[in-house]
Amino acid sequence: MSAERAVARIDLGAIRHNAGVMAAAAGGARLMAVVKAAGYGHGAAPAARAALAGGASFLGVATVTEAEELRGEGIDAPVLIMGPLTGGEWARAASAGAEVTAWTPEAVARAAAAGAGEPPGVHLKLDTGMGRLGARPEDVSALVDSAAAAGDRIRVAGLMTHFATSDDTTGENASFMSEQLLRFRSAVAGVRDRFPGALVHAANSAATLRQPSAAFDMVRCGISLYGCSPFGGDPAEHGLRPAMSWISYLASVKTLRSRESVGYGRVWRAARGTRVGLVPVGYADGYARCLSPAGAEVLTGGRRVPVVGTISMDQLTVDLGPEGAEAVGEEVVLIGARGDERITAEDVAAWRGTINYEVTCAVGPRIPRIHEG
After folding, report:
1. CATH number of the domain at 12-238, out of 3.20.20.10, 3.90.1150.10, 3.30.930.10, 2.60.40.1640?
2. pLDDT digit string, tens, across residues 160-179
């Protein structure tokens, strides 16, 4: 019997390995390990330490709270907050010694006013086609002038952009990354001399693997560090090792007769007499309700079995088959490998109709993380 209802086992050795893979792919550029959203569900501080040990030298987060949490764990590596800040968050970022992102003269002014002692590091973000945060081409001059005018109240630590389609290698938007890259090169060429110490960075995981020329001075890698493919395919194709295994157990096993049902709404009825197992994991844990009708499977007893019936808040059920010999207490693997069988975050994403990022981030706080290696 499992000691826990369910756990997510995090292989820190895999994260170190993946950081090494991405550092090599960066071809000499620095590696920023993106550990926002609790390290994509893996645990921010343990993931950060593993990535730093594997070759990263910079960390990326989305919020000031995430930066503070890293500092609270004793991690002193450079940290960039990539998301917007408001109100007192500017001062909190400065207090945490975190670098910040700015794309308007107003944001530059807020960063300059928040500095106490050491001037805060500011990364100027340009919108080359993502359409979200960043100065549009017509606004770049005003942004750059405001940063220069701030003098020694700030340190322009970076010039950055973000690709919208780096993971699209064959579709109609496959060439858009090249367009963005050209726009960014042109914009940077006009301002880089004004900020000689600034790191130029644009590439995420997909761009780092796809186009080495996009590495510039630093790459920002997230999903690949956790052993997931940024292209949604097999991580092994890029030498990546999945870091997360999601494990539960059979809490109940019972025999159903033909046409008997299981779960809310009776959406699944046994086509023949069969054995059905209950796994104490549900959509409140991040195992989405849509997975059952989408054909999701889990591993138990060394084989794949289908998830059947409506997934509820705390439970799901699986069809073990008429001859299924699994008993109460048998291990169930929702994500991970056993023997020659494996279920990846990419598999779950395909069943769910989403991306692997969402799958690992969705594994909820009720699931303890056990960090190993």
Report:
1. 3.20.20.10
2. 999 999 999 998 999 999 99
